[in-house]
Write a structure and sequence with these properties.
163 residues; mainly alpha; Glycoprotein, Type 4 Pilin; three-stranded antiparallel β-sheet; 6% strand; elongated
Length: 163
């Protein structure tokens, strides 16, 4: 069988070869602008749906961390009370006495009971310590003021009380 000469090809054969070349070139070209825009649109829609759920989860996680830190602070206050015979009051430094011994308690004090970073909530606010508890009479009150650092609030801004 002799090789086919270009002049001997029928128009159908030439057209088939052209389509084949077009498909080969199409595979090597990449994505069209329309395809890229469709993908960007889909990813944006997914992000818009998922973002509120992710941020809500972060707020709950920070509240959980605050509750855990408050339990650690309460445990440290109990150890301070065992060593020194009483809870610290706000006037001698409040929670700071868990880090540094007050002058009148240097002999009994066996701290530090905490690291300084544990006295700050996940929103970088100080925990509120009240030695004569109003919420917990006969004990102390420990309060995290939430994301806004203000009393009251709802959602992430709500106060967290240690009980």
């Amino acid at each position: 069988m002799r090789p086919v000469n270009r002049r001997d090809r029928s128009p159908a054969m030439t057209n088939a070869r052209g389509i084949e070349m077009m498909h080969r070139n199409r595979k090597n070209r990449g994505f069209t602008l329309v395809e890229l825009l469709v993908v960007i649109l889909i990813v944006s829609m997914l992000a818009a749906v998922m973002a509120p759920r992710v941020f809500k989860g972060l707020g709950k996680a920070k509240s959980g961390i605050a509750k855990t830190n408050m339990a650690i602070i309460a445990d440290s206050l109990a150890r301070y009370q065992n060593d020194c015979g009483r809870l610290p009051d706000e006037y001698e430094g409040g929670l700071e006495v868990l880090l540094v011994a007050p002058p009148e308690m240097e002999e009994k004090w066996a701290g530090p009971y905490l690291r300084k970073s544990q006295l700050v909530d996940p929103w970088d606010n100080q925990y509120v310590y009240i030695s004569e508890g109003q919420i917990n009479p006969g004990s102390f009150d420990l309060i995290c003021l939430g994301a806004d650092g203000q009393e009251g609030g709802e959602g992430d801004d709500a106060d967290i009380l240690y009980e």
